[in-house]
Amino acid sequence: MNDPRPRPALARRGFLIATGATAGALALTAGCSTGTGTGTAADPAAGPRNGTPQRGGTLRAAFAGGGAGETLDPHAANLFVDAARAKALFDKLADFGADLAPVPRLAARWEPNARLDTWKITLREAVFHDGRPVTAEDVLHSYRRIADPQGTFRAKASLEPIDLAASRALDPSTVEFRLKRPYAEFPNVLAAFGAYIVPKGSTDFDRPVGSGPFRFVSFKPGSSLLVKRNDTYWDGAPHLDQVEFVIATEESARVSALLGGQVQYAHELTPASARTHEGRGRIEIIRLPGSGMQGFVMKTDRPPFDDKRVRQAFFLIADRQELVDGALSGAGEIGNDLFGKGYQYYASDLPQRTQDLAKARALLKEAGAEGLKVTLDTAPAGTGFIEAAGIFKEQAAKAGVTVEVRVGNKDTYWKDILSNGSFASYRSGAMPIESHVSQRLLTGSTTNATKWQHKDFDALYQQAQATRDDKQRAALYARMQRRLHDEGGFLIWGFADWIVATAPAVRGVSGKAPANTLDWARFDKLWLA
Question: What is the DSSP letter of 451?
């Protein structure tokens, strides 16, 4: 297991089914939360998996892939495997900790002006793999490339608040970002998904040069990427000699390869597989809590959900534990109709909502909605969607509500439900609460599936972004969340675990980091016992 020599990818050994499927597609994640420019990431070692790190060896990690069209351009990342490979080769200015607060990375610190519309970023000393120092000009080149109107890079929307034409390099290690408006949560932009820093002038990523913990060795799209330790990495050289990312699009192929010893890390297991193998000694199961919000959206601009009493009734119809147990096979925890449980600013002091069918019936009667019939749109577009729809249908019947489940096309589902219908299954990956608000709950938000459009709510958000004091800003987020908890359009019944598995010899895997945060898929901190 500690043999440092590269081995053939699984596809060449009969263990790999590599297709163009996007089973590993990332849930929506875009960056935006407050940052003081200080802080540390969660300890990447997970409890009993601690120990003294050992140097050496090659770790093989299996992910679902994107087929022969895969690229190592970090700005074009869309899949989990893209993000994991980009993290190995490149760095961002910041990344998200376990509570989705930004943690400094290439940015040693950040400082706003009094109006919160200009931010000075001081870079730490770091070098690219070819020996060039990481400079302010590299940062500006990277962000301008992402924001190019001719491009389609995912982080473009996250960078929208920056006036890049007015932003400048004050010196080689200092960037001044001018913003279009006050933005207290600007450090979230630095941590945005896909906002990696590449050398100035970089346009070709066939043999990528980054500043990350590993250096490029070889790449075969749809099959494998091999990287080796960067001994000059600013955050300390990795323990492993090499990491090979291999593609196994089917979950069964990833599990079989892990059980057979062809890989030592398998990403994205189902709850059923985890239950089958957990505690049996052959592989280790690691659950990453808070990785995926699960719920339903009620469109607040149309009947029957334009009456808040109907929305309140539906909150009370849901038996959240039954939904978690049935739709997620117990691999998660119940929600309270608010996004971001466990994240920075989450309103944990609000009482946990529980099923109350009698009160739900009373609210429906008061709203003139007795005998209500609604259509619930769903599709196999997310884990547990179909199962949750069936469970909620049975729960609603106990309150006198008839739910017709309509199963749509998983490939067009997210576009279909954005404006159509009135009630639909929904999920989200990890992102700061501020991002959830700005992207989904403001009058002008482009992904406002609940059609929650209130000028006074918008004003609270803008007030928060113009508030420098952390406690005062937290109080404003609390006010927004109290209102959403009372009358919002998100019925959030649970938060799903993300599940990975490793060989017993693998150490240093975080058991705290939600998917797509700093310590998720952080192979520079892993070692082989």
Answer: -
